[in-house]
Amino acid sequence: MDRRTFIRSSAALGLLAGMQSLAPAWARSTPTNPIRSPALEPTRRAGRLVEYDLTIDRTPLTFGGKTGRAVTINGTVPGPLLRFTEGDEAIIRVHNRLHEDTSIHWHGILLPNAMDGVPGVNFPGIKARSTFEYRFPIQQYGTYWYHSHSAFQEQLGHYGPLVIDPAGGDPYTYDREYVVVLSDWTFEDPHDVLDNLKNRPNYYNFQRQTLFGLLRGEDMRLQDRLAWSRMRMDPTDISDITGATYTYLMNGQAPDPGWFGRFQPGERVHLRFINASAGTFYDVRIPGLPLTVVQASGQHIEPVVVDEFRIGIAETYDVIVEPKDQAYTVFAESMDRSGYARGTLAPRPGMTAPVPSRRKRPLLTMMDMGMAHGGSGMDHAMMKQGEVPVHHGSRNHGAMEKRARDASSDTTAAMHGHSMHDPHAGHGMTGMADMPGAAPTRLRPPGTLPEPVPHGSDGHGPANAMAPDVTRSRLHEPGVGLEDVPHRVLVYTDLRALHPEPRRAPDREIELHLTGNMERYMWSINGKTYAEDPLIPMTLGERLRLTMVNDTMMNHPMHLHGMWMELENGHGERIPRVHTVIVKPAERLSVLIEVDALGPWAFHCHVLYHMELGMFRVAMVQPPGASIPDRFVSR
Ligand SMILES: [Cu+2]
Fold first, then answer.
1. How far is the CA of 591 from the centre of ligand 1 (A)?
2. Region 50-62 average pLDDT
3. Within a domain: residue 314?
4. CB 434, CB 425: distance < 8 Å
5. How many angstroms does the Cα of residue 559 sit away from the middle of ligand 1?
C-alpha cells in the first residue's frame, strides 16, 4: 500500500459511511461494526492465529518538492496498521531488504522476552536481506505502535500503528475510528543531526533569546538572564530538534494540506493518537471540539473531557469526539511552538477549517530549575544560608536538611529516598531496604505521590550539568507552555484506571536520576551512560517502586519494555498503567512495577538521540540468586 492508496482507501471509507448513514444518527442502535481505520490484510488468518508479512526497505519520500529516502514498512510512512483481537496469536514475519540490520519492537506489548525486538538486548537483530519471524500471544487490548530499535531508522520512517480490540468490546461506543500517527521527518541524515547537536547543542534552537532582547529586558528580568547564563542553559531550550529541520507529520502527511478524515454528522468518532516521533512532543487540540479521553497508554481510563493534551514521544491517547456538520482542524503543535502537524476532520472532501496561529514560544521557568519560588531569586548566592525553598504540608524540610547535614544517618531523609550526604545512595542497584537506617518503604502507601525532596550535593560528575535544589511531583501540571492556556488541558493526575484494583505495597524501592549536560549534549542515568553502567537488576516476583528524578531541564519520556508501570498519581487503587511517562524538569515521580517477566528488558528515554547517547538501561529480571550474564557486566 503506497501513500496514494492510503488516501484512496480513506476515500472509499467515506463512501461506505455514506451508505451506512441513510438512517439518521439518533435512529441507529449502538454500532456493533464501527467503521475502522484501514488495516493491513493479514497474510493468513486461521482461527485465532493472525499472520502478517512486513517488508522493510528504502523508499523515496517527497515533501514540498524535496525528496529524501525513508526507511519504509511495506512501502509507506507510517507503516501499515496491524490489527488484532485480544486472545489472538500473532505471527509477524519481518523481511529486511535493507543493506543494514533492522528490528521491530512492539511498543507497550507484553510478550516473551525473545520477541521484544531490541538488538543486543533480546536478540541479535535482523540481518540485511534476511527474515525474522516474531510469534507471541496477544494478551491485552488497546492502541499501540511498533518501530525499529536499530540505529536511527525510527527517525527515517520505520514505525507504524498496532491496535488490539478488547475481547469483551470497549466500554464506550463509537461509529467511526481513525488512527492518527504523529511523527517528525528530517531531510538531514540523523547522524548529521546528532553531530550538529554535539557541536552546538542549540543548533536547531532559532528561538534563542537575543542579546538585544536581553538588553531591553524583553522576556525576563536582567537578573534572571544572568542567572540562566551562569547555569549554561537558555530558557528557550525546550526541544533539542525543532521545525528548523523537522517536517511535522500527521499520518505521514506534511501540514499543507495535511491529513484528511471524513465523518458523517452525528457520528461519535474515536481518534487513536500515537506519537511516533523521534524528537517531538506534541500538544493536540481540535478547536471547537471537546476531547473525551478514554484510553491512555492503551488502557481504559475513567473518561475525562479536555480541550487539549500533551502527548510525549511514544505515548498514546484515545479520544472520542462528536463533530457537528462542519470542518475541524486537528492541530498538533510541537511543544516548542516551532511548527505543527495538521489534519482536517470534515463531513465532505475539500472542506477545511482555520489553522490556529502558533502560540508564543514557551520559556522554561525557575520551577523547571527545581527552584521553589519562581521568578527572580533563583541565584544560589541570594538564598539565605540553610534556606530550603519548600512549602509543603507541615513537614519542615529546612530543619530536615540541616539535620541531614549534621548527622551521618537521618531516618527522615532516608525515608524520602535520598541521603543528603551521598547522592548515590539509593541510586541504581542499591535497594532502599538495604540502606542502613532506611524506613520501610511501605510507610508510603502504594499509589500515593512522593513528597518533595531537596537534592543533595550533586555527585554525578561532568555528565550532569546541574542538580535542582528541590525535586517534587509535577503530575498535576500540564507542562511547559501550557501553564496559562485558557482551556482544559489533560494532566497526569486526571488519569484514573477504569477499574479499581488492590495495589500491593512495594517490597523494594530504587531511585534513578535522569542526568545530562545540554552544553555538551550528553545524556545519561545517574551520570553514567548505558555503556558505563548497563544494568538495573530486578528479581522475579518482587514488587518494585521505581522513583525517577529528573535532574535536567528537558522533558524525558521514559519507557519500560515488557512490564507495566503503575503511575503513582495519588489515585490509590485507580492509578493508571502506562508504558511511557514524561518526567518533567526537576520532577520526582514514582511508578510501581510488578516484576513478573523474566529476561533483559530495555528501559530508556524515548527521545531517540538521548537514548542513543546513553539514557538507556537494561532491567534484568532474574530468579532470586541468579548471577548476571557476562554481556551485561559493567565495563
Ligand atoms: Cu531524554
1. 18
2. 96
3. no
4. no
5. 10
Say what the pLDDT of residue 519 is.
75
Q: Does residue 240 lie in a domain region?
A: no
465 Cα: distance to centroid of ligand 1 (angstroms): 14
**Number of structural domains, the chain?**
2
79 DSSP 8-state letter: -
Question: What is the CATH classification number for the domain harbouring 388?
Answer: 2.60.40.420
Instruction: State in Å: Cα 615 to ligand 1 middle.
Output: 7
d(CA 36, CA 81): 11
Quote the ligand 1 centre to 555 CA distance (angstroms): 6
Q: Is residue 332 part of a domain?
A: no
**Of the residues 113, 142, 169, which one is the last residue of a structural domain?**
169
Q: How far apart are CA 404 and CA 411, in angstroms?
A: 9
How many Å lie between the centroid of ligand 1 and the Cα of residue 306? 27
* Mean pLDDT in residue range 455-484: 84
Per-residue confidence (pLDDT) for residue 206, from 0 to 100: 61
CA 557 to centroid of ligand 1, rounded, Å: 6
Separation of CA 383 and ligand 1 centre (Å)? 30
Decide if 463 contacts 527 (C-beta within 8 A): yes
DSSP-derived secondary structure for 471-502: EB--TTS--TT-TT-SS-B--GGG--BSS---
Distance 598 CA to ligand 1 centre (A): 26
Structural domain boundaries enclosing 516: 380-632
Cα–ligand 1 centroid distance for 68 (angstroms): 26
- 497 CA distance to ligand 1 centroid (A)? 26
Q: How confident is the model at residue 615, as a pLDDT?
A: 97
Going from the Cα of 587 to the center of ligand 1, the distance in angstroms, rounded, reads: 13
Output the nine-digit C-alpha cell for 448: 500515593
CA of 452 to the centre of ligand 1 (A): 22
Query: Which one, of 73, 82, 4, lies nearest residue 38 by Cα?
Result: 82
Dist. CA 522 → ligand 1 center (Å) = 10
The grid coordinates of residue 352 equal 477545511
Question: Is 514 part of any domain?
Answer: yes
Q: Which three cell numbers stand for residue 407?
A: 548527622
Percent of the chain with pLDDT over 90: 65
Q: Which of 153, 169, 185 is the last residue of a domain?
A: 169
Average pLDDT of the segment spanning 69-77: 96
pLDDT in tens, 568-606: 999 999 999 999 999 999 999 999 999 999 999 999 999
Q: How far is CA 102 from CA 105, 125, 266, 369, in A?
A: 10, 6, 44, 39
Calculate how far, in angstroms, residue 583's C-alpha sits from the geometric centre of ligand 1.
9
| Residue 484 burial (CB count, 10 A) | 9
pTM above 0.85, yes or no: no
Cell of 509: 524501592
Looking at residue 275, what is its pLDDT? 98
**For 160-174, 229-243, 466-480, 497-511, which range has the lowest pLDDT when averaged over its residues?**
229-243
- Cα of 283 from ligand 1 centre, angstroms: 18
Please say whether the dihedral angle defined by the alpha carbons of residues 141, 250, 117 and 578, taken in this order, is positive or negative.
Answer: negative
Give the separation between CA 562 and CA 601, rounded to whole angstroms: 6
Report CA(611)–ligand 1 centroid distance (Å). 7
